[in-house]
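Annual report, structural modelling task.

Input specification for the zinc ion complex:
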Amino acid sequence: MEIDITLFIMKNSQHNHLFKDLGSVDRRSFLATIPLALMSARNFIFNFPSLTAAITKNNAHEWDYENREWGDISQEYQVCKMGKQQSPIDLNSTIKSELKPVEIHYQDIQLSVINNSHTIQVNNQLENFIILDDHKFDLLQFHFHHPSEHSVSGKNYPMEIHFVHKNEDGNLAVLAVFLQEGRENKTLQQIWDVMPSQKSLEKYFFDISISPFQLLPKESEIYRYFGSLTTPPCSEIVNWIVFKEPLEISSAQFQQFQNIFPNNARQTQPINRRSILTSI
Ligand SMILES: [Zn+2]
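The model returned the following structure:
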């Protein structure tokens, strides 16, 4: 998944120490501080994209998928190397459990899309949310990876979508959907028709209404586990919900994304002492 926290780091420099040694930092204080900053950073980006671009250039620790030793780029990214709850993972050895169904409340949104050089991202502006274990998580954005970041018993899918949500306590929940080759997906095509092929500012298409719901599979069977952002700073703050059923897209749609991003997926990480739960 992809979260831009550049401005969080810049605007909240008093919290920079939190990133320097996540191994010893009090986890609760970390969780309490980062989400507000994520929210303000996103709003800021939303309103002042050109200023954001200028600031990002001067302050962000640049990372990419060529050099994947992200933990060596910056102290702020150390958890990418040192963390024990990193994502993505290979989904195997699951434990069957009575998981409460995830309630999904999505309405159509006006299309707002950005190529941030790491992925194509669609930002949400409306009251779209999920209910996970009685907690409300608001949709921030969704974006795409090729190939899939998670794998199932060692097998990758051509692509994966991440719907990124945040609750009022600052925890994140990401719905992940595998994409496989099959029939064209019309909702995806609406995005593909206008997605920037180069790094861009956020682009608004007020005349294009898209239904995020159409990018979810019909079956509700899921995997659940606790993990991290899959991009720097790799913060371990994410409730992962991965749908078992893949969604179909056409090979032409797959090729179109691959032409822009030949590989924007992190490799799978050790599961360590975590459990993967599946619905019964
Ligand atoms: Zn992602």
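Residues 1-2, 143, 145, 162, 230 surround zinc ion (CB under 6 Å).
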